[in-house]
Amino acid sequence: MNDGKSFQDIQTLVIELITRISNNGFKSEKENVSSTIIELQDFIASNLYDTATERKEVEADIKTLLKMRKEYKSLRNLNILSFTIVPLSFAVATFIFLMIVSDVRMGYSKEQIDQSIRVMIVNNSDLTTLDFALKNPRIDNPSRTTKFERYPDNVNLNDVLMSLKAEHYTQTNPETQFLNKLNAIIIEHNEVDPFSKLLNHQKDLFDNVRFKAKGSYNDIDDDINKIAQELYSKNKLVDEYLDKSNLSFWVSVFGLVIALLTTLVQFIATRKNKYVLQKL
After folding, report:
1. For residue 119, how many C-alpha atoms fall within 13 Å in the half-sphere facing its CB?
2. Coil, strand or helix: which one is 106?
3. Other Cβ atoms closer than 10 A to 130
4. What Rg, from alpha-carbon coordinates, does the chain have?
5. Model pTM score
């Protein structure tokens, strides 16, 4: 037998390396693993074997160590993937999905509603029919629209009429006849139902004040309308906050799903670590 490490020394190194890796759960320092493998490779290169059988045994041990090193790298990459990339990608995709779903839905666009009301005004429709048509639109081919392309669900007729008026004044050559009809309907609507933009119970309170004031109502008319407009603005803010709270709820739900999936991936990775250790 040549000078140098004996076969028993090599076996000691192999056992030491396997024990070190097993105890640390594949978290051994890379330099320690590499240095021990290099010692084994140098030993083979120096031909320090008593028999061919010993040579095969040592080569088998080295192949086992190399396999363990490969498994370690594979598991490390899996852990990095499961702990960072997968949850982050899923979170981004979920957020985008929620934003799209919460904003887009089937319905009628402002353009479709405005066109329908415009045609009815041209055909001399009365105020009651216009209000009914707004609440029960009879328009073919509803489309997917965003909140910027459609009216709110509780939009009132006065807002639609004012939108038509504002749009009409942006035209280069406005139609005078249509504008006169539109102004007449707006005036009639403000006289008959000035509080239509409020919620039903709020509208009932203001109508009750208007009824009890009777002849003296004209003295407080402007102040009452200002109060009603302020209350209407507050109602719109509340609706916006409710929409945001609904979105936050679904974000929280999907966040919980992400946490569960991440835990599941970590559990699978841990089980695979134990399986590799037992196999080796």
Report:
1. 10
2. strand
3. 19
4. 39
5. 0.50
